[in-house]
Amino acid sequence: MDEARQQDLALVRAVVEGEAGAFGRLRAQLEQPIARSLDRLLVQWREAVVHREDLLQGLELHLVRDDFAVLRTFRGDAQLKTWIRAVATRHFYAEVKRIAAHDKEERGEVPDEQPHPGASPEDAAVREDLRRRVRTVIETLDDRDRALVGLVFEQGSNATAAAQVLGLKPSAVRMRKKRLLERLQKALKGVWP
Amino acid sequence: MNSLQEWLEANAPDVLDDDREAEGPHIDDARFAKLVDAAEVLDPQELGHLGRCGACRAVAGSLLETIPARPEPEAEPWWSRWWRPVPLSLAAAALAGLVFVVARSPDDLQARGDETRDFAAPTVAILAKGADGWRVAEDGHTVTLGARLGFRYGNVTGAAKTITVLAYDGARVHWFYPEKTGDPAQELKSGKDAVNVRLPYDIVLDAEHRAGALTIAAGFDVDPVALASRLKSGRVDDTPSTVVRRLTVKEATP
Fold first, then answer.
1. What is the ipTM score, two decimals?
2. Which residues contact A46 (CB under 8 A, 6 or more apart)?
3. I need a labelling partner for A186 at 20 to 30 A (CA). Which of A47, A82, A90, B18 fits?
4. Quick check: B33 and A150 CB within 8 A?
């Protein structure tokens, strides 16, 4: 294990053992990756922007709860700041989805079926037809291509990054993306404006 | 209306239809962190889950954000190259080869002393991942089809600017870095951050590869096309500027 990982483990150990000042050091070290993981989600879930500070505090509680149960699962297999980004993103994702669903319920909307503002019935029908056709194509994709759609189009991952976890070369990611767009264009012929 | 790509970016969560429960357990956060830091690949079950789970994709997207994009080589139309004077290129290649040999001959390097070689020269290690994890691939090692190859380099003094990594299996040259002929070699980092740098993506010995001998050459500041040519003709030797490893690839056992 390299020196940086050993330092990460030592810091986590100091925190769970209650060493004075250790939590402050941990917070200072992880503040930026945690904030980034939240702000990334808030771009998509704007309803939750007003809850930003609460969400950050909620994560701290999540980490210290049950005698640091979550923090104790850190084993030093990866960098602490990478690990915390994963933990924080999963926590924030669940929270912002809950907030969004709650807000919609309060407004009397059915969750995830918000009408497009100002859309005429014809527009809505075209939009729905478009979605249905795209979904049909997506359903025919193999697992790797489906994951690629999620990483590249939804998450905005670059080809180098997506290639790393998908086990492809970046050029193969770019090629698959190009082929998928071509398939979609074919499937949407006459519908795509 | 925006382009189809922009539409898909805006509507991906909807068309991926995540409301249906994703199959299997979530991908563990520690596993995600390891995927990024240790350059591991999702297994088939994880891939299936990722395509259907918005929470896991959000985690993946957040972690993958830390990996910088490798610049996409600009496409050059074929007609902008075909007429270039071939004889001039051949002469230049011959001259480059001569300069290379003179500048990098073993005698010359020996004359500079071990200290120069150890501390100033860039280094590269070829890694192979087998059943027992990652190991440095030395001459004569056997790897299995489906295995992953990774590459680490050191270039603290900035003595090298680029690296080219290619392989030859007796039938064809496999382009690892760069990914295809005509692309520029991979640029290297330098300075204190370049002690032990992993190249951005690994190579999977997939269906494009075959069982048998596989010679891998990793060369600093070499012309990729010239290295490919030397590799094919068997004229590539292990030198301080070009690391050569001769491996054996065997079929995966079911």
1. 0.90
2. none
3. B18
4. no
